[in-house]
Amino acid sequence: MAQQIPLDDAAAEDAAREGPLHIAAADIAWRRLAIVNVVLLGPPDAGDRGWVLVDAGLRGTIGLVKSAAAERFGAGARPAAIVVTHAHFDHAGGLPSLIDHFDADAYAHPLEMPHLDGSRAYPPPSAHGGGLLGWLSPLFPRNAIDVSSRLRALPEDGSVPGAPGWRWIHTPGHTEGHVSLWRETDRALIAGDAVIATAQESAYAVALQEPELHGPPTYFTPDWDAARASVERLAALRPALVVTGHGPALHGPDLASALELLARDFDGIARPPGT
């Protein structure tokens, strides 16, 4: 059974009391949508086309994304771009509707684009998932969605459209084209599912949202060698703030050392036996 690294993170507990839209930094907000998070990059006065949406949530939660955007940036404010960390159903299920609603292009890594242009489904989930959500994972949607008319490749220079100062980093393992976002000036990391902040396989942990640092969700991670290399790459950045696709935002003096421990002992902590 994979272990986890608990984090005594008072900041995460404070965020949970702020309401449905959590503020991780002056220009970083996130909202939990059932089992997954979306991130809104931009200051509150960013206005129309002055901010970026990271991931799109589930098909049934698009109303929550719209309300979060209106609350944060004002009624009618549209993102300059929608960046997709990866195309799993919980991160991209709402993408077709949100592209239409916001009249915005979606950006992804070229290796992830086949899952977003209708040409390739994801492989079946691993049998190593464990927990209730791992047991249910064969029922999760795996089919490719088709947003090809508004789909764009992330720029080769590493920049993030609509988000000056941010860079995208290829962090494969959970999916072949998974990306994370990094800002050097304040060492802020949007990790997607390269690392997460709750035991996503456990319905109990997902409900409680206690802050813990984990590797990627086990049931949908096909390449554990690549996942380990991605965690090592992120740990080398020594982030001061991490917003992940699952669980609360993490920061504080223990964060960098916890991420280094996860990278150093990844096979014992995060990798399921037999993989």
Would you mind describing this structure in some detail?
- The chain has 275 residues and is of the alpha/beta class.
- It contains nine helices and 14 strands.
- A seven-stranded mixed sheet has the order 2-3-4-5-6-7-8, covered by helices on one side.
- Helix 5 (131-136) links the parallel strand 7 and strand 8.
- The longest helix has 14 residues, at 224-237.
Strand order of the largest sheet: 2-3-4-5-6-7-8
Measure the end-to-end span: 12 Å
Estimated share of beta-strand residues: 15-25%
Helix share bin: 25-40%
Number of beta strands: 14
Gross geometry: globular
What characteristics describe this protein?
20% strand; 7-stranded mixed sheet; 5-stranded mixed sheet; alpha/beta; 275 residues; disordered N terminus; globular
Summarize, please.
The protein is of the alpha/beta class and 275 residues long.
Question: SSE layout and pairings?
Answer:
Elements: E1 5-6, H1 10-16, E2 21-25, E3 28-33, E4 36-41, E5 52-54, H2 62-73, E6 81-83, H3 89-92, H4 95-102, E7 106-108, H5 131-136, E8 151-153, E9 166-170, E10 179-183, E11 188-192, H6 203-208, E12 212-213, H7 224-237, E13 241-244, E14 250-251, H8 255-264, H9 266-269
Parallel strand pairs: 5-6, 6-7, 7-8, 11-13
Antiparallel strand pairs: 1-12, 2-3, 3-4, 4-5, 9-10, 10-11, 13-14
